[in-house]
Amino acid sequence: MMRNCLQKMALVAVLPSLLISPLASADFSGSVGLTNSYLPRGITASDDKLSLSAGVHYSNPKNGAFAGVKAHTLGGESPYTQYDTYVGMTKPLSEKASVDIGVLSYQWPDNKAATDTRPSHGEELFLTGRYGMADASVYHFINTPLMKGSTYVRAGVKKPLKNGITVGANVGHNSYGDSEEMKPLKAFGVFEDYNHYQVSAAWKDLTLAVGAADIDNTWLKATTDPTVTLTWEKNFGF
């Protein structure tokens, strides 16, 4: 188990030379959170059950490098934990604009249902652009027999208000690839491409969000009915 975890960490460490600058120039932060349903891409990954999260983030202001790991508890008939490990770099383009590029690894080491088509890990390349209060991202799966070639794109905007509340809106599109393992599942309707929408309001450590997807899919646990989530997340520095 430990050897597999080390191999997965090595796979995502594609920018090691950027991460070995003196620690004195680095910033470390952490977070802990709780939500009534974890919705990473507009549909529940925690079976609409409570999800705990905790993470650590590293950033180097001198060269723009960043890395981190965040864990989420996922409910359902066989609860397990998802670990999101990422590494990348930020490139400022102007006072208002910047670009992030990197690799993100999803790991489910205790997922008892893992198979060749439902693996214990998966990796994506990601690109994020920001301008002022708006941002957009693209994520593309680069491995695993089932998900290879799948792409997720999203765009969002946030607006701080005078009363300390920040309002936001997001839209996303998830498209599944055409791997040999995916084709029959798409043909039977197990996986379907979909769009999702969300509006939110945040105050201090609390975020209230309302969203929906444009499909009803039992396998994906997606619904066109509005989904309301309340999330508490506390960020802190080291």
UniProtKB/TrEMBL annotation:
One Pfam annotation reads Gcw_chp
Query: In the record, which residues are listed under signal peptide?
Result: 1-26
Q: Which InterPro entries match?
A: CHP02001
Which terms are listed as keywords in the entry? Signal
Q: What is this protein called?
A: Outer membrane protein beta-barrel domain-containing protein
Q: Which organism is it from?
A: Thiothrix lacustris
